[in-house]
Design brief:
- This protein has 3 domains: 105 residues, Peptidase S8/S53 domain (Rossmann fold); 88 residues, Immunoglobulin-like, CATH 2.60.40; 178 residues, Ribonuclease Inhibitor (Leucine-rich repeat, LRR (right-handed beta-alpha superhelix), Alpha-Beta Horseshoe), CATH 3.80.10.10.
- It is built from 3 helices and 29 strands.
- Helix 1 packs parallel to helix 3 and helix 2 packs across helix 3.
- The longest helix is centred in the first third of the chain and has 18 residues.
- It starts with 13 loop residues before the first strand and ends in a 9-residue tail after the last strand.
Length: 398
């Protein structure tokens, strides 16, 4: 591939990523690409003023980087191209490939760039939500609250069909995609198999953390929806939990005579009340995003779990202790942004993927028994208090 004009002097070459922060299949990559930005499923307008909700390509990613450059030039008119590149790389974050080891495959962070350049930090918005039961439909209703009355709240509703592919929550702010603007004081009625992603914005403030929530189905007397194993499903799987008012949830070993063996994707996501989760030894697998964004979850005890999926405990900010003695692989983003996590009692680790412990600033110790395990570029980002115990004579790469 001809590397020019992208590699010409004073140029910044841009690659594109997906809403899941992965390198887009159509994007170039390698040493010739300086920085990445979202370039897929973007909302924009054409020259006739019509709204386009699925625009993309590196032609969409490049203007995102251009806007960041404009912010930096506004803040410091004499800034050089090299200084801009350095800021982009130092403040960005790596793409979400499982074993990302390329330190140049970095997604730009506009706020991070400006914050570092100016040495100033904006007050962050705080977005919260309330969930109630609609007695007529047995489904959930949700309302949002922001600490700034002038903030705009945007939310996205995604249909989930467990019979087909799973709709994974976006890790970008949903305003970039097909979103609704929330009207303060109203209630949003949800249906079966829906998950909600929301974020708040206000001038002069940092956007809120993105909130994720799976709409519960209150029609099951046990509080759980259990799907028995089949030819296409190895284990008996809980796909929905409607228990949203208890601090301690002890999942039963059997539901209506069927053994519980798996916690399905997004199952407890966004549960605001639960502080302790205790799973029976019969549960062997936790799927992706299963306990993500449970803000008050502190302790998880899973004596029988052998496999735990991507982002399973993402953004559980109060999670302190996890006991999963049979888990040997820490998948991508599994404990990302678990800022209070101190102890993770896991098995003999053979794999630690990208972003696995990203942002776990209170994590103190990780024990690794495999002497040739390697870490991705942002596996332990911001884990400033961490000690990694390795075998004597280890050849591990970090």
């Amino acid at each position: 591939v001809n590397p020019y004009p992208a590699m010409a002097t004073n140029c910044i070459s841009v690659g594109a990523t997906t809403p899941e922060n992965r390198k887009a299949s159509f994007s170039n990559f390698g040493d010739g690409v300086d920085i990445y930005a979202v370039g897929n499923l973007m909302t924009s307008y054409n020259t006739s003023g019509y709204k386009i909700t699925d625009w993309g390509g590196t032609s969409g990613a490049a203007p995102v980087i251009s806007s960041i450059c404009a912010l930096l030039v506004t803040a410091k008119p004499d800034i050089t191209v090299d200084e801009v590149k350095q800021l982009l790389l130092e403040t960005g974050y790596s793409t979400n490939e499982e074993n990302q080891i390329h330190d140049t495959r970095i997604i730009a962070d506009a706020y991070g760039c400006v914050k570092k350049l100016l040495g100033a930090e904006l007050e962050q918005l705080c977005l919260d939500y309330n969930v109630t039961k609609n007695n007529d439909s047995n489904f959930a209703e949700i309302s949002f609250i922001c600490d700034d009355p002038n903030a705009n709240i945007y939310y996205q509703i995604t249909e989930i069909d467990y019979g087909s592919s799973l709709a994974t929550p976006f890790t970008h702010a949903p305003v970039l995609y097909n979103s609704y603007k929330y009207e303060p004081g109203t209630t949003v009625k949800l249906k079966k198999y829906q998950n909600v992603v929301a974020c708040a914005y206000a001038p002069g403030k940092a956007k809120s953390n993105i909130q994720y929530f799976l709409a519960p189905d209150f029609s099951y007397e046990s509080g759980y929806r259990l799907i028995p194993a089949s030819k296409s499903q190895q284990y008996n799987k809980i796909t929905r939990c409607s228990i949203i008012d208890q601090k301690v949830i002890t999942v039963p070993e059997f539901i209506d005579g069927t053994e519980v063996q798996e916690i399905g994707p997004l199952c407890f996501m966004g549960n605001k009340e639960v502080e302790t989760i205790i799973l029976p030894e019969s549960v062997k697998q936790i799927d992706e995003w299963a306990f993500a964004n449970c803000p008050n979850l502190k302790t998880v005890i899973t004596p029988g779990v052998e496999t735990c999926g991507r982002y399973a405990f993402y953004q559980c900010g109060n999670l302190i202790n996890v006991e999963m003695p049979n888990v040997t692989a820490v998948n991508m983003g599994m404990f990302k942004n678990c800022t209070s996590l101190e102890t993770a009692k896991l098995g003999e680790l053979t794999e630690i993927d990208n972003h696995a412990f990203y942002g776990c600033e209170n994590l103190k110790l990780v024990k690794v028994t495999n002497d040739d395990i390697s870490f991705a570029i942002n596996t332990f980002k911001d884990c400033d208090n961490l000690t990694i115990a390795t075998p004597n004579g280890s050849t591990m790469e970090t």
